[in-house]
């Protein structure tokens, strides 16, 4: 098991009104899409996907509930946090023309995979979606490195539609041979179904409530698989066999609830 390391927050950047990146020097190797358990002293330990900007490590966090709101509100440069990992699997970049489909904080998981694919000389298209323009994550980073397609629900930027509709258009127009997706599960379910229908390889990064991150507590179970150990990245064939994917998640007490 990986020991927890204490690191100092060096810089914090507002990415959108509800998403912040926290930069620190951790220096461990990880595969794109693997996650860490991020300890917020006095609060909780939560799963997050690390990425790198230059030689700095970062996590990019969307404000959702108690811990992420605390992190947004109370954490400042020079504060100490704990980090253990990396855990789980990463994306397999087994395609030449890749489409990354992201919603919400999904870019946090996909940004390293996109960077790696671009470095490997692959053609990468990215679709980002949000309710409004100001919530689009990594717009500049992605427009520098990929062919960027934007969808907003209010039409304030890009095409006025859900990101799934935009992704369907890109799959139609370009000869995409691999789709990677991360974001709200309803969105990922639509993307996966579309890819299965079109015979395009697809991988999705799943989120489930996690406590240990190392396969002991079983909190993150989905159809008998553990997201922390068997995932978080699952391939289209596996997702197609899952009854719970896109339909049910587990509450903190372990009970199944509709998504
Ligand atoms: C492997 C993995 C990697 C992740 N990486 C990132 C990342 O890089 N950036 C990021 O912003 N978030 C990421 N998440 C999600 C993040 O861990 C949760 O948003 C966070 O734990 C919520 O904690 P909280 O105390 O703020 O919210 P809580 O008070 O625990 O929950 C508040 C509400 O948030 C929602 N929520 C909480 N946890 C989850 C979850 N796991 N999945 C879906 N909805 C949830 C629920 O609607 C819940 O009612 C990741 C999750 C997993 C499993």
Quick structural gist:
This protein is of the alpha/beta class and 259 residues long. The protein has helices at residues 66-74, 106-119, 139-145, 163-173, 185-198, 227-230, 236-241; strands at 5-16, 19-24, 35-40, 44-48, 50-53, 56-62, 80-87, 97-103, 123-130, 147-152, 159-160, 178-182, 201-205, 221-222, 225-226, 233-235, 248-250, 256-258. Helix 4 (163-173) packs parallel to helix 5.
Largest sheet descriptor: 7 strands, antiparallel
Q: If you consult CATH, what is the topology of the largest domain? A: Rossmann fold
CATH class of the largest domain: Alpha Beta
> What's the SSE pattern?
EEEEEEHEEHEHEEHEHEEEHEHEE
Please provide the count of β strands: 18
Coarse morphology? globular
Strand ordering within the main sheet: 4-3-7-1-2-6-5
Number of domains: 2
For this structure, what is the CATH homologous superfamily of the largest domain? Nucleotide-binding domain of ferredoxin-NADP reductase (FNR) module
Outline the fold blueprint.
Blueprint (H helix, E strand, L loop, with lengths): L4 E12 L2 E6 L10 E6 L3 E5 L1 E4 L2 E7 L3 H9 L5 E8 L9 E7 L2 H14 L3 E8 L8 H7 L1 E6 L6 E2 L2 H11 L4 E5 L2 H14 L2 E5 L15 E2 L2 E2 H4 L2 E3 H6 L6 E3 L5 E3 L1
Parallel strand pairs: 8-9, 8-12, 9-10, 10-11, 12-13
Antiparallel strand pairs: 1-2, 1-7, 2-6, 3-4, 3-7, 5-6, 13-16, 14-15, 17-18
Helix pairs in contact: 4-5
The structure holds flavin-adenine dinucleotide.
Flavin-adenine dinucleotide (FAD) binds next to strand 4, strand 6, helix 1 and helix 2.
């Amino acid at each position: 098991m990986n020991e927890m390391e204490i690191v100092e927050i060096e810089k914090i950047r507002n990415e959108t009104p509800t998403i912040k990146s926290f930069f620190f020097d951790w220096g461990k190797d990880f595969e794109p899409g693997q996650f860490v358990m991020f300890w917020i002293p006095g609060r909780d330990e939560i799963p997050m996907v690390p990425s790198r900007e230059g030689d700095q490590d970062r996590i990019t966090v969307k404000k959702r509930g108690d811990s992420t709101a605390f992190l947004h509100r109370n954490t400042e440069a020079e504060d100490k946090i704990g980090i253990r990992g990396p855990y789980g699997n990463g994306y397999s970049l087994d395609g030449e023309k890749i489409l990354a489909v992201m919603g919400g904080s999904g870019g946090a998981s996909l940004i390293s995979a996109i960077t790696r694919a671009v470095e490997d000389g692959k053609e990468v298209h990215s679709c980002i979606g949000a309710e409004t323009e100001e919530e689009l994550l990594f717009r500049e980073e992605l427009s520098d490195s990929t062919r960027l397609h934007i969808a907003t629900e209010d039409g304030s930027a890009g095409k006025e539609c859900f990101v799934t509709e935009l992704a369907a258009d890109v799959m139609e127009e370009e000869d995409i041979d691999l789709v990677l997706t991360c974001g709200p599960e309803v969105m990922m379910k639509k993307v996966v179904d579309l890819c299965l229908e079109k015979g395009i390889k697809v991988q999705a990064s799943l989120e489930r409530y996690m406590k240990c991150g190392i396969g002991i507590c079983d909190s993150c179970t989905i159809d008998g698989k553990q997201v922390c150990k068997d995932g978080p990245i699952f391939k289209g064939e596996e997702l197609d066999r899952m009854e719970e994917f896109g339909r049910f998640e587990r509450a903190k007490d372990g009970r199944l609830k509709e998504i």
